[in-house]
């Protein structure tokens, strides 16, 4: 029986050779590979600076630290995203305030406006699944209220709006290179920015707040990217345009051939956005198909097709992030008013989105098999 994985890294002898070269060089940290990777990634995104770190979560946290988020300040994040978008805010002593998503599953600018208070310091739009958040409206609102913008680009490596890559719109962008992402360094992340102050601050904080070997000016972290990871990243970055081209081609082929399946709702996006399809997300109309999303996923798995289920619940329903937990630990004197009725889209989409296999290693016959199995369901 066929077995189709939902994600697979594209790695070959080139990465193996690059790792070997670093291993034999004896230099594993803060060396030439990290610097080369940073320069090449900054050029790819179209920004002046890139600061490589050891995860996307570290990139988010360091971004928040680098914009000087103070304890008790609020940061608005979408309710439908990966946990780290919100937990990074808490690690910096801030309070995540959840806002709803729009029909493209990204931060809804109209709802964002309602969440702004006197304590709001920053906004983190997430380019979810590889689609782009509505940066035009988000940046306009940020400007009106003098707020910082950190783009969470973990899922948007190569996503473009009006021919400009995401990661260059906000004060900074935070990327992840986890193994399932459009490109990988094993584990890793990077901050992109045109702001020299932010880049400098992030560089110092990434390595124990050290301004030189004997001076610690800030309480920093060990968030350094290793030379081995950077060496993998340099090769992956060379391959990225082709990997993304294939990923987009696969996703568009699936979408084109599944568009008439009446129980699947497929994202429509305007021509000025290049969707990098980290995932190929489809919304399952459970009433029309007559089964739950969980049952559908089980059925597909029985047929050898793995899918992802992102995200099962909006973040505020996670125990670690519930209103009660956040208030108890971080702001005992404050009531946070995010509740189900305020976040109807996040509530509706969560649990009913599945991501179909679309990675670059898939062959036409794999895609045709997925289409055939899905079309046979009703
Ligand atoms: C939207 C989003 N933000 C942040 C992260 C965190 O990245 P990492 O796993 O590299 O720490 C992820 C990872 O999946 C993500 O999808």
How would you describe what is shown here?
- 39% of the residues lie in helices and 15% in strands.
- By secondary structure, the chain is of the alpha/beta class.
- It has a domain at 13-235: Type I PLP-dependent aspartate aminotransferase-like (Major domain) (Aspartate Aminotransferase, domain 2, 3-Layer(aba) Sandwich).
- The strands form four sheets. A seven-stranded mixed beta sheet has the order 1-9-8-5-4-2-3, with helices on both faces. The protein has a three-stranded antiparallel beta sheet with strand order 7-6-13, with no helix packed on it.
- Helix 4 links the parallel strand 2 (74-78) and strand 3.
- The structure holds pyridoxal-5'-phosphate.
- The site of pyridoxal-5'-phosphate (PLP) has 15 residues, from helix 3 and helix 4.
Provide the fold topology.
Blueprint: H1 13-25, H2 32-45, E1 49-53, H3 56-66, E2 74-78, H4 83-91, E3 95-99, H5 109-115, E4 120-123, H6 135-145, E5 148-152, E6 160-161, E7 164-165, E8 172-176, E9 189-193, H7 196-206, E10 210-212, E11 215-216, H8 227-258, E12 264-266, E13 273-274, E14 280-284, H9 286-289, H10 293-302, H11 323-330, H12 344-349, E15 353-356, H13 364-375
Parallel strand pairs: 2-3, 2-4, 4-5, 5-8
Antiparallel strand pairs: 1-9, 6-7, 6-13, 8-9, 10-11, 12-14, 14-15
Helix pairs in contact: 1-8, 2-8, 3-4, 3-7, 8-13
């Amino acid at each position: 029986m066929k077995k189709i994985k939902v994600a697979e890294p594209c790695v070959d002898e080139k990465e193996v050779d690059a790792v070997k070269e670093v291993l034999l060089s004896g230099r594993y940290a803060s060396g030439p590979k990290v610097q080369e990777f940073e320069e090449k990634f900054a050029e790819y995104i179209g920004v002046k600076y890139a600061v490589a770190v050891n995860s996307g979560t570290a990139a988010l946290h360091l971004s928040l630290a680098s914009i000087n988020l103070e304890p008790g300040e609020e940061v608005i994040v979408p309710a439908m995203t990966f946990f780290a978008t919100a937990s990074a805010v808490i690690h910096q002593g801030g309070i995540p305030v959840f806002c709803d998503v729009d029909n493209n599953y990204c931060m809804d600018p109209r709802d964002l406006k309602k969440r702004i208070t006197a304590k709001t310091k920053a906004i983190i739009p997430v380019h979810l699944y590889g689609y782009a958040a509505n940066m035009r409206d988000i940046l306009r609102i940020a400007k009106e209220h003098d707020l910082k913008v950190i783009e969470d680009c973990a899922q948007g490596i190569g996503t473009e709006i009006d021919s400009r890559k995401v990661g260059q719109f906000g004060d900074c962008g935070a990327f992840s290179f986890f193994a399932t992402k459009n490109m990988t360094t094993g584990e890793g992340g990077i901050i992109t920015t045109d702001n020299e102050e932010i880049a400098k601050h992030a560089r110092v904080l990434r390595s124990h707040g050290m301004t030189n070997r004997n001076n610690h000016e800030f309480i920093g972290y060990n968030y350094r990217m290793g030379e081995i990871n950077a060496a993998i990243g340099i090769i992956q970055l060379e391959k990225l345009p082709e990997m993304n081209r294939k990923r987009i081609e696969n996703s568009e082929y699936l979408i084109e051939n599944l568009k008439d399946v009446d129980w699947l709702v497929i994202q429509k996006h305007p021509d000025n956005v290049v969707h990098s399809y980290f995932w190929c997300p489809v919304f399952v109309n459970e009433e029309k198909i007559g089964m739950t999303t969980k049952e559908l996923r089980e059925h597909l798995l029985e047929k050898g097709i793995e899918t992802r289920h992102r995200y099962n619940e909006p973040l505020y329903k996670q125990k670690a992030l519930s209103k009660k937990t956040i208030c108890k630990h971080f702001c005992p004197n404050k009531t946070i008013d995010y509740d189900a009725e305020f976040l109807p889209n996040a509530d509706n989409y969560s649990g009913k989105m599945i991501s179909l296999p679309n990675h670059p290693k898939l062959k036409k016959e794999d895609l045709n098999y997925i289409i055939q199995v899905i079309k046979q369901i009703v």
